[in-house]
Amino acid sequence: xxxxxxxxxxxxxxxxxxxxxxxxxxxxxxxxxxxxxxxxxxxxxxxxxxxxxxxxxxxxxxxxxxxxxxxxxxxxxxxxxxxxxxxxxxxxxxxxxxxxxxxxxxxxxxxxxxxxxxxxxxxxxxxxxxxxxxxxxxxxxxxxxxxxxxxxxxxxxxxxxxxxxxxxxxxxxxxxxxxxxxxxxxxxxxxxxxxxxxxxxxxxxxxxxxxxxxxxxxxxxxxxxxxxxxxxxxxxxxxxxxxxxxxxxxxxxxxxxxxxxxxxxxxxxxxxxxxxxxxxxxxxxxxxxxxxxxxxxxxxxxxxxxxxxxxxxxxxxxxxxxxxxxxxxxxxxxxxxxxxxxxxxxxxxxxxxxxxxxxxxxxxxxxxxxxxxxxxxxxxxxxxxxxxxxxxxxxxxxxxxxxxxxxxxxxxxxx
Amino acid sequence: xxxxxxxxxxxxxxxxxxxxxxxxxxxxxxxxxxxxxxxxxxxxxxxxxxxxxxxxxxxxxxxxxxxxxxxxxxxxxxxxxxxxxxxxxxxxxxxxxxxxxxxxxxxxxxxxxxxxxxxxxxxxxxxxxxxxxxxxxxxxxxxxxxxxxxxxxxxxxxxxxxxxxxxxxxxxxxxxxxxxxxxxxxxxxxxxxxxxxxxxxxxxxxxxxxxxxxxxxxxxxxxxxxxxxxxxxxxxxxxxxxxxxxxxxxxxxxxxxxxxxxxxxxxxxxxxxxxxxxxxxxxxxxxxxxxxxxxxxxxxxxxxxxxxxxxxxxxxxxxxxxxxxxxxxxxxxxxxxxxxxxxxxxxxxxxxxxxxxxxxxxxxxxxxxxxxxxxxxxxxxxxxxxxxxxxxxxxxxxxxxxxxxxxxxxxxxxxxxxxxxxxxxxxxxxxxxxxxxxxxxxxxxxxxxxxxxxxxxxxxxxxxxxxxxxxxxxxxxxxxxxxxxxxxxxxxxxxxxxxxxxxxxxxxxxxxxxxxxxxxxxxxxxxxxxxxxxxxxxxxxxxxxxxxxxxxxxxxxxxxxxxxxxxxxxxxxx
Lengths: 415, 574
Description:
The complex is a heterodimer of chains A (415) and B (574).
Chain A: H1 2-21, H2 33-42, H3 54-64, H4 70-83, H5 85-88, H6 90-110, H7 118-121, E1 123-129, H8 136-146, E2 152-159, E3 162-170, H9 176-187, E4 195-200, H10 208-231, H11 235-253, H12 259-279, H13 281-303, H14 310-336, H15 342-370, H16 374-414
Antiparallel strand pairs in A: 1-3, 1-4, 2-3
Helix pairs in contact in A: 1-2, 1-4, 1-15, 3-4, 6-13, 10-11, 10-12, 10-13, 11-12, 12-13, 13-14, 13-16, 14-15, 14-16, 15-16
Chain B: H1 2-10, H2 12-28, E1 37-42, H3 47-50, E2 67-71, E3 74-75, H4 79-88, E4 94-99, E5 103-107, E6 110-135, E7 138-162, E8 167-171, E9 178-179, H5 181-184, E10 186-193, H6 199-216, E11 221-228, E12 233-240, H7 244-252, E13 257-261, E14 264-268, E15 273-276, E16 283-285, E17 291-294, E18 297-308, H8 310-321, E19 325-328, E20 331-334, E21 338-342, E22 345-350, E23 363-372, H9 375-395, E24 402-410, H10 418-441, H11 444-468, E25 471-472, H12 474-502, H13 509-531, H14 541-572
Parallel strand pairs in B: 9-25
Antiparallel strand pairs in B: 1-2, 1-8, 2-3, 2-4, 4-5, 6-7, 10-12, 10-24, 11-12, 13-14, 13-21, 15-18, 16-18, 17-18, 18-23, 19-20, 21-22
Helix pairs in contact in B: 2-11, 2-14, 6-9, 10-11, 11-12, 11-14, 12-13, 12-14, 13-14
């Protein structure tokens, strides 16, 4: 994927930049001979990005020495990242719009924003009573081969501690009669009185998604107000926005829900978001960022045709936690610190942020490889996608807009 | 180095963490080699209960439950052994059961098949009547027992096997952490409504049942609508760990509660009751009557107060106004009693004091009783009955009556090997984090504290889980992963902030840590506030996740991270 490649290169450039900056790291960064090489080569160029026309220089270099591509290429990427950050914003916004379109298409064609599996959608349950100790995995794999279009999960039916049969959960397109016929061939005849078929509802109930969306919407408003208190100015505006946030939350959750109350809550939300855009870019950015992370991850999950289970929902909630961390880190470093230039502070934040993301990525990848459980696997796949998306949105979208915001502020102060 | 070690272990923040870890371990109470099967529940009047085995209190921690170690000197290691043994049992045999507390002698009961015939036979029963007798010259009313002959249907009893011992057991828990339905399986009850419901009715019913189970104290509950292929409606209830009997009763009761005076309904459960007292000062075992022996059994009476809506109180006043005052044992009562009906069966009747005549009282005391073999058991059953009645009074009646179609034990959806593999994966993931952190910092004295802090955070979280008795399910596991994940993130922030300060002019550690904690607190508040709305939406998944994440964030920010910062400061400061 394009974005992934890009992320890697920005990460490398961070390392390069910082290793020259921080002398304490000198004795530590000698692990990769390759990297130390950069360090030496890089030093003379260190100051360059600060002068605006130097980026062209980097471009020229690649043209002159096309064989020695790696260093100049890295430098070029770094220069683009530093100087053309506004143009780079096109990437995350394009992806966000694509994700919006894809999700809309998904909703329009299937009526649901995601492919739900049996646990979320419901389906049929076939209970087979059998004294034979059936191997669940064998049965499950056999049925999956026979009915590739359907979702199938088998579990054991236990009574007084021993298996007395199996339960097969399947999606609606599964024909119970056919399953019984196929299974009869495989495990011996199943008599009519030995099995029963029932329709099964979703484990989360029909109102679950509506409630979740409302709750996440209020979550966004809450995140916005916390960041506003943390980074914004103007106590009066802070108090008013807090009051509005509480009113919106109360309208959503207190008492019986009605459409009018919901609409009022949405109007207040829009007012708040407009206030943030005008008064507190960091607040708006956190909301936009977490929203983008979730939506883009959702679109990718849909592209991969992953069928979402209950565990998948949990994974999406977990993305909120991870994206908040990198965002606050970036906002603090850029807005609250005074030492060094904006670029230096950005790279310092990026170094920390990338370490954070890479430790999590390492843990998630390991869990993905070694886990046998489909539940864990799904959580980890979604987290993996979410973390990669978060890297893009934190370090390009959020960083870009915050730098633009700082520049504008500086410009305002000067004149 | 020795000096630094000493400094670390005398640091207040580190000591706080170590004490917290110790407390967490005590709460988790790991017993890696726990043997036998733990007793979850004992059925009343079963052979186990007659032998004196008692049900554990619902609040007791998993590892404190009584464990059965051997039966007839055959060692019982797990439930397979237990069922193998009990399946072989024949009726009217004595079984010696050894638990970690006591040795019991139990006699198995035959399982009888009773067929009633049309033919009648006479049966002599005892009846107590009141007769006037002259004792010492005065006429007094005395109770006298007389024998009476009545006709009953003839019956034939045939022994068809051995009755179950009445014990519900499970493999001895190795820690005090309660596992959710995802991990340990539970009970599944399929119920069928007596009349067909439309979608609204079904939603109300399901909400009401969830509410009822939550009020009762069962949190990990899935209630959902299902139907079979011919379109019959069912309601599926899945409950982690709970034993079948108690929920069966709670589910199948429609919960139509009515209070009548002279056959006129004065108030009903649900809408007419504004408040049901459940605190110790106005509910519990009745201090006035307490417990007493009745025959060979103990009986305990409970009482609790309820508040009626003004309308219901007025209705009651109208009814009592019509009644006469009668005198009994120097107490003045009204001529009719307040009768309480649950699902059309009379559960209790109360005398109405004469001073209540025609008055609209909103506070009423409700009472009832429970019995058992020992005083403790009677008290427990009495309180259990009280809890059921309170639940029904609070939640009101279900829109329809439900019939239990079947109940069965379900296997965990996350698989039985899940926990073991989760521990292995957790360890491998920590190793992965260790490698990344070591590569980045090239200092083991940074990498190792990060890993140790993460392990400590998991321990503390599990300790809290054990103390508050929350069920460890999918949502909680997701919450733990995110708590540990953000924990590592924050430790990296602390490390970077302190390292980056090293070569700047300011050697002020306080300032560096302040910088780090500014970011951490920002992330903390944002996460906690983001989780807050999830507490109010959709029970189960969202709520469980939000609570775990919030508790994890609190533990991290206020206990683990300050200690990590202190350790890093000591280790890196020259």
